[in-house]
Every structure is written in structure tokens, then in C-alpha cells.
Specification:
By secondary structure, the chain is an alpha/beta fold. It has 8 helices and 15 strands. Strands 5-2-1-6-7-8-9 form a 7-stranded mixed beta sheet. Strands 10, 11, 12, 13, 14 and 15 form a 6-stranded antiparallel beta sheet that branches. Strand 14 and strand 15 form a beta hairpin. The radius of gyration is 23 Å and the shape is elongated.
């Protein structure tokens, strides 16, 4: 079976490597190169880097035009395999593949259709998610389910750690579906569209922390937005990323003695203590705008007036 692989970020690389070992990869479709950083240096996507290392043809169209479809048709690929490519495929494009297309989506579809299911699982406090292999369909993440396996979240799971697990476990799921497809053992199950829920694209300001929320919920915010855009607040009108934190299990301050969002104190072992709407959040790693990331002790040593300040006040996004 000859495959066109479509993907862009790190999470897709193990699947590309696994498929290239077992199957004939006609080419790799990934997003165009982007200029990043202060020097605006052009950077390849992780999938492009992996494809070049494997010696595979790489295609990076900004749009899937008629001319580009002719290029793909000439590859004579049987199947399109997609994982976090970042674009929607038209039916005209899908018609190029005799066996259609399949997609890996890291949620228990029809729950959490959309681009940010792993972030959403953590924000909701779910303990179990899923990895789903589905048929590609016209509407986003609405295709028949070909395989769905549970994904148990660890207690301190972040989107970064969860993405790493999905990357490797998902590759095995794709291989299983392809083996079943070749053996004629696939049993597609239509989704119940009435039960569909959705998640949206993450933006750079989505991690803004509302200190009136509970310490438990703000802990989820920090973990859900790791590695990007981070949970964050403002101090002295500068963005302050909260990189690592957890609900504090020690003694709380008497009601009414500290404000919501106030840096109430320091526990040398557990971190900087910030008052929330319910409980204290203990912050152990943070990063002030334009500065390097620091552990809580180093941060306090360099910012003696941090304790007693109220975070999130008088800021402009």
C-alpha cells in the first residue's frame, strides 16, 4: 500500500517514522517553512525534518490548488494518512486516493472535535481520554471511527507530556488500523453527531489566569498550557509566565487577611504562595517578561518586593 502522509508538528513524527519502516511512503505533505525568532531564521517543521532524514519527497503548498492536486495524483498514492497537518482537505483532494484517508485524533470522538483536545482534557480535569483513528470526512473530525483506545491521564499530566505519549501510542494505533485495512478486518462505526463537543484553536492569550478561580482549576490552566502559551498573569504591567505550580497542601491564611491574587508568602520547599478564589497556589517555576525562567527561590532573591503584591492588576493585553 502506497501512502501520502500529512502532518506538521512533533506529535506526528513517530507515526511518520513507523509508517516509513513498514510501508511505501509516496510523499510527505507539511506546512510551509516559517521565519521564527529575533533573527527571523527560516525553520522547517518537525515533520519536514524527519521526512528529509528519511529521504522522502516533501510537499509544502500554501493552498491545495488544482496544479498541486495534479502533482499528488502523479504519485499514485492509495491512501492519505493525516496527523495534525493543519488544513482541511476538500473532497476533490480526497478523491485522489482510492482507499480514502484516515486521521489520528487524540480524543474520544465525538467528544472534543477540533484542534486542542489534549489541552481541553486537562482543563476539564478528565482522568481518561482516548486516541481515535477515524476516516477523513468533509466535516472536521466527523468520520467513522476505525479504532478507539483509552488514554489514561497521569495525575500531573501536562499537554507536553500527554502529546509525547500520544505521539508514540498513536503510531501503534495507526499501524494496527493499516494492518486491519489490508486484512479486510476494519469495522467502521459511525459517530453519534448529537453527542459531539468541540474545542477551539489555542491563542497566545488563552492562558491568562483568573485568580478568582480555585487553586485546583488554576493548576489545570498551568498544566494545560504547557508548553505554550503557558499560564500567565501580570506583575508591574509585565507578563509573568507561571511555568510550574500546584495546589498548596499546607496551612492556609485566615479568611479576609489576603486578597485574591495576592502573593501571600513563601514556603521554601513548596514555592511562592498565591491566594486564589479557593485555596493557595504554590508556584515553583516562573518567568518574567524578557527574562529567563527561574525557580521560586531565585525569583524571590531577585524580586524582594514580589511578596505582598497583587497579581493581574492594572494590565493591558
Amino acid at each position: 500500500m502506497r501512502i501520502l502522509f500529512a502532518g506538521t508538528p512533533d506529535i506526528a513524527v513517530p507515526s511518520l517514522n513507523a509508517l516509513a519502516f513498514h510501508y511505501d511512503i509516496a510523499g510527505v505533505l507539511t506546512n510551509p517553512d516559517k521565519a521564527r525568532g529575533r533573527g527571523k531564521q527560516v525553520q522547517f517543521s518537525p515533520v519536514k525534518k524527519a521526512a528529509l532524514e528519511l529521504g522522502l519527497p516533501v510537499f509544502q503548498p500554501s493552498k491545495l490548488t488544482a496544479d498541486f492536486r495534479e502533482e499528488i495524483q502523479a504519485l499514485s498514492a492509495d491512501l492519505l494518512v493525516c496527523l495534525a497537518y493543519g488544513k482541511i482537505f476538500s473532497q476533490t483532494f480526497m478523491d485522489l486516493f482510492p482507499k480514502g484517508g484516515i486521521n489520528l485524533h487524540p480524543s474520544g470522538l465525538p467528544d472534543l472535535r477540533g484542534p486542542s483536545p489534549l489541552n481541553s482534557l486537562i482543563l476539564r480535569g478528565d482522568r481518561v481520554g482516548a486516541i481515535t483513528i477515524q476516516s477523513l470526512a468533509k466535516e472536521m473530525d466527523s468520520g467513522d471511527i476505525l479504532l478507539q483506545v483509552p488514554l489514561v491521564l497521569e495525575e500531573r499530566e501536562t499537554t507536553a507530556s500527554l502529546s509525547g505519549r500520544v505521539a508514540h501510542e498513536g503510531a501503534d494505533c495507526l499501524l494496527q488500523v493499516l494492518r486491519d485495512m489490508e486484512a479486510g478486518n476494519l469495522k467502521p462505526v459511525p459517530q453519534d453527531h448529537n453527542k459531539a463537543t468541540y474545542c477551539s484553536l489555542i491563542g497566545k492569550d488563552d492562558g491568562l489566569m483568573d485568580w478568582s478561580q480555585s487553586a485546583e482549576q488554576l493548576d489545570r490552566v498551568v498544566r494545560a498550557y504547557t508548553p505554550w502559551p503557558h499560564g500567565f498573569t501580570f506583575w508591574k504591567n509585565l507578563r509573568l509566565n507561571i511555568l510550574e505550580a500546584r495546589p498548596y497542601e499546607g496551612s492556609l491564611f485566615p479568611p479576609g487577611t489576603v486578597k485574591v491574587g495576592e502573593v501571600a508568602g513563601l514556603d521554601k520547599k513548596d514555592g511562592i504562595l498565591i491566594q486564589t478564589g479557593e485555596g493557595l497556589l504554590a508556584v515553583t517555576r516562573l518567568q518574567l517578561q524578557s527574562k529567563k525562567a527561574l525557580d521560586h527561590k531565585s525569583f524571590i532573591n531577585g524580586s524582594k518586593d514580589f511578596v505582598g503584591s497583587v497579581l493581574g492588576e492594572e494590565h493591558d493585553l
